[in-house]
């Protein structure tokens, strides 16, 4: 059960600069008064009444807190304290300064597969730990894989954002309608009972992108992307995978498997010969192969541009909405759409997209 403190957060922490902000609150640097340690404080607004469209539902915050409080692993963002008031919840979490892993890699001139594996191994170790606790993340994507500190000999990976995470209960089926289209597993689109295997599909997509700079199922629209996923429409194009080892392709294929029961688990991945070579020959093949940096840099630049475009678009819509609000000519549906945009412009509900797919098939 989630544990909340009723103390005033400012009695224990000195509130510092704003690090980021969103529709439901902001993130600020905070300093623990007792030790001087720096943390990040996530100040989240709560709904003032049942059914309100403004603020986060307390139940969803409780679920994220309960999950984070049960996870203590070097590759998972740490939660230190949680404070609650009538209108706000404050999460004191690990201060992660290193930025996104993909941005860090994109700054390099070249990268061997063996170096990329060091990062993937950390991701797998974190996911393996989560899954051992019967917890699925359900939103694994480049934006949620960070570095604790950027300028370190061996940067530590941190998995963040557990807003869509779920703890499985034996005998209870779980279905989800959310996710970022190019990273979600086919069972999510088909609204089938889910398992932690959905995270492994996402890792397969991330690995494919990391090695080639190409997204395996990306279409011109979200609907097309989801159709490609359901149809298992992907190939290893020689133009993008000319520098990739056969072991790496085998690793990806065993993750991008439609039947979730046949998909590799995180434990399986950690002993796959690409991650853990069994012979000198396997080690040599892996060490001779490298990431297609030209296309990876291009993919990452496009990804960052899209994130910026979505953010500006959402802000413009919010600004226009405020102007309309001043005239009193805005309805509740406009507010809902605007709120959704502010929450997350990348992670979106796929139920509507799934209905479109059903009607067009």
Automatic annotation (TrEMBL):
Record-annotated Protein kinase domain positions: 13-275
Keywords on record: ATP-binding, Kinase, Nucleotide-binding, Serine/threonine-protein kinase, Transferase
GO molecular function annotation: ATP binding; protein serine/threonine kinase activity
PROSITE patterns to which the protein is assigned, alphabetical: PROTEIN_KINASE_ATP, PROTEIN_KINASE_DOM, PROTEIN_KINASE_ST
Keyword RNA-binding: no
Any one GO CC term of the record: cytoplasm
Residues that hold ATP according to the record: 42
Region described as Disordered: 340-361
Keyword Heme listed: no
A GO BP annotation: positive regulation of apoptotic process
UniProt xrefs under SMART domains: S_TKc
Entry similarity comment: Belongs to the protein kinase superfamily.
Name this polypeptide is given: Protein kinase domain-containing protein
Species per Swiss-Prot/TrEMBL record: Electrophorus voltai
Source organism phylogeny: Eukaryota, Metazoa, Chordata, Craniata, Vertebrata
